[in-house]
Amino acid sequence: MKPVRLWIGVVLLVLGTLLALDALDVLDAGTTVGRWWPAALSGLGVVAMLTQGRVSLGPAVVTGLGLILLADTNDWADEDLIGPVLLIVIGVVVLASVGRHRTHDHLSRTPVALFGEAKSTEHGEHFEHSTVSAVFGGATLDLRDAHIDRSATVDAFAFFGGVDVLVPKGWRVSVGGLPIFGGYEDKTSGNGSLPEDAPLLKVNATAVFGAVDVIDTPSGRAAADG
Fold first, then answer.
1. Can you give the pLDDT at residue 162?
2. pTM of this prediction?
3. Which of 159, 125, 160, 117 has its CA nearest to residue 141?
């Protein structure tokens, strides 16, 4: 995601400028950064959603978290409200992602793991999009029985949890997103040897103190789920 990297570059440039001004005794960088650093977090979430062209769970939570922290660092709200409001924001966004997403030939339920394990299997003949989320838990989205005409997308969100996206061998995979004290990884085999017209799955991953893995061989949580 080039816009995300661009945003990170801008943030680092601003941070370096503030530190330089601090060294020249023009301003107190510690105070400025201490008050406004959450704005960088919110901006990261907004840029990610603009890049994806829609509001998705992971970037929305990152944006909301940044706004809540910004209110706290600037004393715009009672600090006793920060924790409850954060839980409300996460809860609302997670519940908004629970439901049915239409493909061309069927409706599918998206897996959301809250303090536990969840698994969902897609069987769509014209699969286009799905979401999978894990909040303090583990979730598996099994796409081995799905068929992609050309390309499809998955929005994966791991918040203090782990997500496995299980794909069939023969699919090309492109993974990108927001790793915030977490990470995402394409663990499939043979991606470089696949033809250019092979089905393409794009995974938009947001990992906040968590992990999103794309695999083509069940292991760990995916194997345990069967």
1. 93
2. 0.68
3. 117
